[in-house]
Amino acid sequence: MWALDQPYTPRADRLFVGTPLALLVVLAGGAGAAVVLVGLGVLPPCVRPVAGITAGHGALLATALAWAGVRSPARAIAIALLGLAAAAAGLAPLGAVAYLLPAFWVVWLAAHGQLTGLALGTPVSPRGVIAGALVGVGLASHLLVSASRTLGVQARVGHVPDVLAAIAYDVGANVLAAECFFHGALFNRAQRRWSFAGAATMTTAAYVLRYVVDPLLPKNVELVVGAVFYLALLGAINCWLVWWSESLVPGLVSALVFFAAYRTLGAG
Asked: Which residues does residue 154 pair with via DSSP β-bridges, in sequence order?
């Protein structure tokens, strides 16, 4: 009788259920082996960044795809394309064009309805895209002004191939993997379990931590503090954008605009 009187409340799955642990172990093991072999002189130094990019961004993107229900072969293709792009970019700046390959692969999956769990492939209103662009422009403008006034860092007008290569890296690896995992996968899962504030706080903290531990981030104290400030703002606003628009596209736009501005910074 007690069971009949009590309403049934389905138990929510664990937050990290469906994580491809075996694949993550393989990626970590491969990156670790590459570091050791480079240190021993068995492999050339150029292998280390390729292994790091493939393992780091591949782990985030593959986990996001797994949580969205994408099958293993499609996840393996995404990782392989990341590795191919990293290797091509290491050969020459123009090789960074290969970073468009994993981006196109994600677009293809979204177009075929496989990424609705990441809020991709669903209709997005023009005002959502405009809002994302405005957020990116606002943060980017503040970044450029504050960096020039406080750190003496100016936007570079030279080294255009290097800047374009860095932007391509953001399109097909850095921003793509981070936004798909943190805001498309993690935040979407968290907000179904907790309040918006709780889900956004946890997601933003993880988002900032991902960049703070990035070996590519300069370890100057002022730069780290500035990075934490801007990334916390970007991460929190992107949580709101995906909640408000029900699409990951506005967040992708805002992050790409912001990082494009960041890539133009150089010593003044």
From this structure: 266
Distance set, CA 201 to CA 15, 47, 146, 256, 265 (Å): 15, 36, 25, 22, 29
Same domain for 65 and 160, yes or no, is no
Question: Could you report the per-residue pLDDT of 27-46, keeping only the tens digit for each?
Answer: 999 999 999 999 999 999 99
| Residues 96 and 152 occupy one common structural domain | no
pLDDT by residue (tens digit) across 120-173?
998 999 999 999 999 999 999 999 888 777 766 666 666 788 889 999 999 999
Kindly state whether residue 200 falls inside one of the protein's structural domains.
yes
Among 110, 109, 241, residue whose Cα is nearest residue 187? 241
Question: Residue 93: its pLDDT value, please?
Answer: 81
Cβ proximity of 256 and 243 under 8 Å? no
- At CA 38, angle to CA 37 and CA 41, rounded to 5? 90
> 153 has which bridge partners?
267
Average pLDDT over residues 215-242: 87
Look up the domain containing 127 and give its range. Answer: 121-267
Numbers of helices and strands, H then E, in the chain: 12, 2
Task: Give the pLDDT confidence score for residue 8 in this predicted structure.
Answer: 40
pTM higher than the cut 0.85:
yes
Angle separating helix axes 221-245 and 196-212, nearest 10 degrees: 140
> HSE of 129 in the Cβ direction (CA atoms, 13 Å)?
4
Long-range contacts, 213-219 (Cβ 8 Å, 24+): 215/52
d(CA 168, CA 70): 25
CA 82/CA 101 separation, integer angstroms: 8
